């Protein structure tokens, strides 16, 4: 069985293979550590300033913008944490992300299955339709989508009005990732299932779905992350209580621009979910990204 | 669009009665599996893209029927529009600038991280953190850091005896676009680092051992072995970067909204501005089509020049 090229082998520690190689050129050079420190500071610095800024007062920030909290104050975070708008935005982001993810994974799996394991005329043409979809980013269609969703479908300011178009634009990627994965399942499995009296639908349900779980998780994580970060379409379609977290953060920061400490706390709190999600799924996200480029 | 369920190939030679029933069942199954995805795709991707094309040849303010057919006049007015021309220039600056900045930086950091050193795993996670944040959140943070005089950046500069522009880095026509480019580099540098590291690990160890035996220095090894073998990864990354830069919107909208004095507009901020704030849907449609054509031409050209060699070599 050949592993599909689009997916990196799941959960293989990247450092494992590397241990013990290139000893002759290995570190020990203090300059290397200094450089590493500079890089780490540059990457993490802005994020830390925001997080720490949330623990300071506006007076402290005005006096020395880049300083350490002295004393540490908690009320900025407490205010953000008890702000109903924050939970409203988080809830909307979660709901839209969940709908997008489920639709992408379910519809993508369903479409990829016959494209991978049925032989029928027009199969490649159909696959090409989906591949061509990769060429159309949502930005090109943003304005017509806005009109379609708000005027023709009456779905502006709803979760579905954002989730369905987002799912549609993620479907091509999902089909492109899932199809080779399903195609790589050995034919013997299918034959055995047929001998046991299973139909093709039964094979899909009992064999394909359990075996393709890792690929489905990858597609799901990609869909969710894209939805979680989306800005343009929500900006065009959502207002008030229906706003998602990115919209809410951007609006909060311009609305309360005088309260910099408050903005820092609100922003820091809202980047927490994405960071946690990344740390939990780090290997799969990283593997998926690397695999997509290698393949 | 292609109808998904044409008569299947297999079973065509089997006996009539049972065969055609089985074919019929198979066609129904294919339809069942493919229809939801295809319907969603048609409704939310194909229809809006075609609508953009249709809009682009009418003068339309967003209500009432499409009546006022103007042919290619919207295209002419977009292409001769100073703001749009500027937007194309800014977008191209970001496309080229991102690659020119991130390629050497990403390569250098990947080579550094590929050496055996303490805390390497942690460092890898750290350099990837900005990539994980959403563009909007990164933008909001940098907007605060870049505040004129009282922001962290200007304070740091002041500490070493420099002063930023009085209106701030984002408020000055000469600096705003370059500031955005730097923030974008900070945000997206994690991706090339990650991809180059993966590429580095797939280079055979024997090559390095052989080079070591020949007495090659670290730098010679990198230049003669690592960088050439990393070529395909670099070219693929640059392609992704280019496509991403052409769609640039979020960061600009958060940091400058295209200002000051249209000095940071991109193609997407132009079309959003025309479509939503001015209600010039015909103009927005034409700008969408032009953006798509530019992106397509660049993608195909890039593929022809850089990527064809890689796919041939890979033998796929």
From TrEMBL, chain A:
Q: Which family does it belong to?
A: Belongs to the binding-protein-dependent transport system permease family.
| The protein's name in its UniProt record | Carbohydrate ABC transporter permease
Q: How does it sit in the membrane?
A: Multi-pass membrane protein
Q: Where is this region: Disordered?
A: 1-23
Q: Where are the transmembrane segments?
A: 31-55, 94-113, 125-147, 159-182, 203-225, 260-281
The UniProt keywords, alphabetically, are: Cell membrane, Membrane, Transmembrane, Transmembrane helix, Transport
For this protein, the record's PROSITE patterns field holds:
ABC_TM1
Report the SUPFAM superfamilies cross-referenced here. Answer: MetI-like
Report if keyword Heme is assigned.
no
Where is the major localization of this protein?
membrane
Compartments where located: Cell membrane
Cite a GO CC annotation: plasma membrane
Residue limits of the ABC transmembrane type-1 domain?
90-281
Pfam family membership, one? BPD_transp_1
Cross-referenced InterPro entries: MetI-like, MetI-like_sf
Q: Name one GO biological process term.
A: transmembrane transport
Automatic annotation (TrEMBL), chain B:
Give the record's GO CC terms: plasma membrane
Membrane topology field = Multi-pass membrane protein
Spell out the PROSITE patterns in the cross-references: ABC_TM1
Identify the keywords attached in UniProt to this record, alphabetized.
Answer: Cell membrane, Membrane, Transmembrane, Transmembrane helix, Transport
Domain of life (superkingdom): Bacteria
An example Gene Ontology biological process: transmembrane transport
Coiled-coil region list: none
Q: Where is this region: Disordered?
A: 1-20
Keyword GTP-binding in the entry? The reply is no
Q: Does the keyword Cell membrane apply?
A: yes
Which subcellular locations apply to this protein?
Answer: Cell membrane
Ranges that cross the membrane: 30-53, 92-113, 125-145, 175-198, 237-256, 281-302
Where is the ABC transmembrane type-1 domain positioned along the sequence?
88-302
Could you tell me which PANTHER family the record lists for this protein? ABC TRANSPORTER PERMEASE PROTEIN (PTHR30193), INNER MEMBRANE ABC TRANSPORTER PERMEASE PROTEIN YCJO (PTHR30193:SF37)
Family, according to the entry, reads as follows: Belongs to the binding-protein-dependent transport system permease family.
What is the protein name stated in its UniProt record?
Sugar ABC transporter permease
| Organism per entry | Phytoactinopolyspora alkaliphila
Q: What is the lineage of its organism?
A: Bacteria, Bacillati, Actinomycetota, Actinomycetes, Jiangellales
């Amino acid at each position: 069985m050949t592993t599909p090229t689009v997916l990196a082998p799941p959960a293989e520690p990247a450092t494992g293979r590397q241990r013990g190689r290139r000893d002759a050129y290995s570190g020990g050079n203090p300059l290397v550590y200094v450089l590493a420190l500079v890089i780490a500071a540059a990457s993490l610095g802005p994020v830390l300033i925001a997080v720490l800024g949330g623990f300071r007062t506006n007076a402290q920030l005005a006096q020395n913008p880049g300083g350490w909290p002295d004393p540490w104050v908690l009320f900025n975070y407490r205010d953000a944490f008890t702000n109903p708008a924050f939970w409203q935005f988080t809830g909307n982001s979660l709901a839209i992300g969940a709908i997008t993810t489920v639709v992408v994974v379910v519809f993508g799996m369903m479409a990829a299955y016959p494209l991978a394991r049925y032989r029928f005329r027009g199969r490649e043409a159909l696959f090409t339709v989906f591949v061509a979809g990769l060429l159309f980013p949502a930005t090109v269609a943003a304005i017509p989508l806005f009109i379609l969703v708000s005027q023709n479908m009456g779905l502006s300011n709803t979760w579905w009005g954002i989730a369905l178009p987002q799912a549609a634009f993620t479907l091509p990627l999902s089909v492109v990732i899932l199809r080779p994965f399903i195609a790589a399942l050995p034919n013997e499995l299918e034959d055995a299932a047929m001998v046991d009296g299973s139909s093709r639908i039964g094979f899909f349900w009992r064999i394909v779905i359990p075996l393709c779980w890792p690929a489905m998780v990858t597609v799901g994580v990609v869909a969710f992350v894209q939805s979680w970060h989306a800005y343009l379409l929500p900006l065009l379609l959502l207002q008030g209580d229906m706003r998602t977290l990115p919209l809410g953060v951007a609006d909060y920061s311009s609305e309360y621009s005088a309260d910099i400490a408050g903005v820092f706390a609100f922003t820091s709190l809202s980047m927490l979910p994405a960071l946690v999600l990344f740390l939990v799924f780090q290997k799969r996200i990283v593997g998926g990204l690397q695999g997509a480029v290698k393949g | 669009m292609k109808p998904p369920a044409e008569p299947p190939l297999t079973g065509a030679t089997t006996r009539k009665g049972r065969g055609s029933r089985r074919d019929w069942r198979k066609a129904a199954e294919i339809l069942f599996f493919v229809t939801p995805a295809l319907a969603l795709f048609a409704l939310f991707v194909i229809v809006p893209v075609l609508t953009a094309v249709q809009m682009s040849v009418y003068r339309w303010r967003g209500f009432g029927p499409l009546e006022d057919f103007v042919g290619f006049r919207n295209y002419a007015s977009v292409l001769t529009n100073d703001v749009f021309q500027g937007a194309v220039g800014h977008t191209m600056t970001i496309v080229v600038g991102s690659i020119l900045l991130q390629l050497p930086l990403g390569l250098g950091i990947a080579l550094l991280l590929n050496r055996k050193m303490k805390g390497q795993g942690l460092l890898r996670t750290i350099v990837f953190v900005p990539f994980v944040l959403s563009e909007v959140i990164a933008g909001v943070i940098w907007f605060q850091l870049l505040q004129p005089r009282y922001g962290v950046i200007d304070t740091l500069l002041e500490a070493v005896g420099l002063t930023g522009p009085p209106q701030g880095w984002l408020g000055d026509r000469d600096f705003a676009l370059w500031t955005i480019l730097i923030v974008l580099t900070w945000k997206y540098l994690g991706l090339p680092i990650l991809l180059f590291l993966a590429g580095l690990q797939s280079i055979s160890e024997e090559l390095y051992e052989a080079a070591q035996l020949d007495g090659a220095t670290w730098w010679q090894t990198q230049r003669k072995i690592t960088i050439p073998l990393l070529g395909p990864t670099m070219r693929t990354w640059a392609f992704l970067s280019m496509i991403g830069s052409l769609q640039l919107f979020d960061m600009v909208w958060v940091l400058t909204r295209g200002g000051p004095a249209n000095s940071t507009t991109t193609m997407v901020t132009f079309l959003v501005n025309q479509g939503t704030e001015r209600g010039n849907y015909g103009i927005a449609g034409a700008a969408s089509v032009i953006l798509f054509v530019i992106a397509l031409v660049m993608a195909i050209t890039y593929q022809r020049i850089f990527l064809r060699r890689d796919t041939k070599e890979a033998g796929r």
